[in-house]
Write a structure and sequence with these properties.
By secondary structure, this protein is mostly helical. The chain is built from two helices and no strands.
Length: 67
Protein backbone atom coordinates (compact mmCIF):
# COMPACT_ATOMS: atom_id res chain seq x y z
CA UNK A 1 0.00 0.00 0.00
CA UNK A 2 2.98 2.31 0.28
CA UNK A 3 3.20 2.72 -3.51
CA UNK A 4 -0.54 2.93 -4.22
CA UNK A 5 -0.44 6.74 -4.21
CA UNK A 6 1.60 6.51 -7.42
CA UNK A 7 -0.98 4.35 -9.16
CA UNK A 8 -3.93 5.39 -11.31
CA UNK A 9 -6.40 3.32 -9.29
CA UNK A 10 -5.94 3.76 -5.53
CA UNK A 11 -8.58 1.23 -4.46
CA UNK A 12 -7.18 -2.32 -4.25
CA UNK A 13 -10.63 -3.89 -4.80
CA UNK A 14 -12.00 -1.97 -7.77
CA UNK A 15 -10.91 0.06 -10.75
CA UNK A 16 -12.06 3.51 -9.64
CA UNK A 17 -9.69 6.13 -11.10
CA UNK A 18 -8.27 8.92 -8.96
CA UNK A 19 -10.33 11.56 -10.74
CA UNK A 20 -13.54 9.91 -9.43
CA UNK A 21 -12.52 9.92 -5.74
CA UNK A 22 -14.73 12.93 -5.05
CA UNK A 23 -17.75 10.73 -5.87
CA UNK A 24 -16.98 8.18 -3.13
CA UNK A 25 -20.03 7.11 -1.16
CA UNK A 26 -22.54 8.04 -3.85
CA UNK A 27 -24.97 5.62 -5.50
CA UNK A 28 -23.01 5.90 -8.72
CA UNK A 29 -19.82 4.98 -6.84
CA UNK A 30 -21.44 1.87 -5.39
CA UNK A 31 -22.63 0.81 -8.86
CA UNK A 32 -19.19 1.48 -10.32
CA UNK A 33 -17.51 -0.57 -7.56
CA UNK A 34 -19.62 -3.64 -8.29
CA UNK A 35 -19.46 -3.24 -12.06
CA UNK A 36 -15.72 -2.50 -12.25
CA UNK A 37 -14.46 -4.93 -9.61
CA UNK A 38 -10.96 -6.27 -10.19
CA UNK A 39 -10.83 -9.84 -11.39
CA UNK A 40 -8.32 -12.04 -9.64
CA UNK A 41 -7.30 -14.60 -12.24
CA UNK A 42 -4.31 -16.65 -13.33
CA UNK A 43 -3.05 -14.02 -15.79
CA UNK A 44 -2.97 -11.34 -13.07
CA UNK A 45 -1.15 -13.61 -10.62
CA UNK A 46 1.37 -14.62 -13.28
CA UNK A 47 2.15 -10.97 -14.00
CA UNK A 48 2.50 -10.20 -10.28
CA UNK A 49 4.89 -13.11 -9.76
CA UNK A 50 6.98 -12.09 -12.77
CA UNK A 51 7.30 -8.48 -11.57
CA UNK A 52 8.12 -9.62 -8.01
CA UNK A 53 10.88 -11.78 -9.45
CA UNK A 54 12.29 -8.80 -11.37
CA UNK A 55 12.24 -6.61 -8.27
CA UNK A 56 13.33 -8.98 -5.50
CA UNK A 57 15.50 -11.51 -7.33
CA UNK A 58 17.02 -9.54 -10.19
CA UNK A 59 17.16 -6.21 -8.34
CA UNK A 60 15.20 -4.14 -10.85
CA UNK A 61 14.04 -0.71 -9.74
CA UNK A 62 10.27 -0.34 -9.42
CA UNK A 63 10.47 2.84 -11.52
CA UNK A 64 12.37 1.14 -14.36
CA UNK A 65 10.89 0.92 -17.84
CA UNK A 66 10.79 -2.90 -17.58
CA UNK A 67 8.29 -2.78 -14.74
Amino acid sequence: TCIKFLGKFPCPRCLIPKDKIDQMGSKLDRLRCTRDARMDNHARWSMIEMVRDWIFTKGRNIASSVI
